[in-house]
Amino acid sequence: MTLQPQVEEAIDEAARIVLSSRHVVALVGAGLSVESGIPPFRGPGGLWTKYGEPDMLGYQRFLQDPLGWWQERLSPAAGYRELAEALARARPNPGHYALKEMEDLGFLHHVITQNIDNLHAEAGSRNVTEIHGNRTKLRCIECCARWHSDQFPIDELPPRCPHCGGLVKSDTVMFGEPIPRDALEECIRQAAMCDCMLLIGTSGVVYPAAGFPVDVKMQGGRLIEFNPDETALTELCDVVVRAPSGVALPRLVQRLKELSAR
Ligand SMILES: [Zn+2]
């Protein structure tokens, strides 16, 4: 695929910034997953547009009735089923593999993802914080212990944590649920060290993730946006690459290799 000259130029500039940075962090949003065939929540064709907005009190209802939540999880409604099926079919796209390669080459130090689809892990990325959880895992709401869903025997409903007795739920963060504190602490630590943040397919409207680029910018770091569309973060960015990440990120890796080989 041939990229427009202004996109090539932006990628070249992005590569030079990455090469001159000490700690590069990628902040990844739904746009990257959409390229893997996962439907977005918002906008045309979005799950919420079709099935209605989810319950904003989801977490509170879970706390009030964990047994009911687990029973529903085991016989899910249509909207949840469509998402679950799309998630099960989804595979990492070239953008995910490019981030993995950037990490292998030492150009990328951490990925903070808002996606729950496990595709970074599937692509082989190692340093990943899943700020909204991971659909393939369960988590204790008290001590943040996590298990792969198929490795956690459910003998009773609702299941309890073998370490602390806390309630166990999907790792996926619900509406009204606080971001798990270990994930949030890691994001804050990464943002504090970061002098270059790649904003990939994120709309910049969901907090706390949308606040990290602002922190990085305020401490003198640089921001590079990879997104086919303008976002709430665009005007803060030093470089904007207007192209799908599945095309732009592999090209960035190629450029990084070329420039660093000189
Ligand atoms: Zn626990």
Folded structure, characterized:
The structure is a single chain. This protein has a domain at 1-38 and 91-132 and 179-262: Rossmann fold (3-Layer(aba) Sandwich), CATH 3.40.50. The protein is 41% helix and 13% strand. The protein is built from 11 helices and 9 strands. The chain has a 6-stranded parallel beta sheet with strand order 3-2-1-7-8-9, with helices on both faces. Strand 7 (196-200), helix 10 (211-218) and strand 8 form a beta-alpha-beta unit. The longest helix is centred in the C-terminal third of the chain and has 17 residues, at 245-261. Bound molecules: zinc ion. Zinc ion binds next to loops. Residues 140, 142-143, 145, 161, 163-164, 166 line the site of zinc ion.
Give the helices and strands, then pairings:
Elements: H1 5-19, E1 24-28, H2 30-34, H3 47-51, H4 58-64, H5 66-74, H6 78-89, H7 94-104, E2 110-113, H8 119-123, E3 128-130, E4 137-140, E5 146-148, E6 168-170, H9 181-193, E7 196-200, H10 211-218, E8 222-226, E9 239-241, H11 245-261
Parallel strand pairs: 1-2, 1-7, 2-3, 7-8, 8-9
Antiparallel strand pairs: 4-5, 4-6
CATH-scheme architecture of the domain at 1-38 and 91-132 and 179-262: 3-Layer(aba) Sandwich
Strand order across the biggest sheet?
3-2-1-7-8-9
Mean of residue pLDDT values:
93
- Residue share in helix: 40-55%
Distance between the termini: 25 Å
Rg measurement, Å: 19 Å
CATH topology of the domain at 1-38 and 91-132 and 179-262: Rossmann fold
Please describe the biggest sheet, giving its number of strands, its sense, and whether it closes into a barrel.
Answer: 6 strands, parallel
**What's the oligomerization state?**
single chain
Total number of beta strands: 9
User: How much strand content do the residues show?
Assistant: 5-15%
What would you call the shape?
Answer: globular
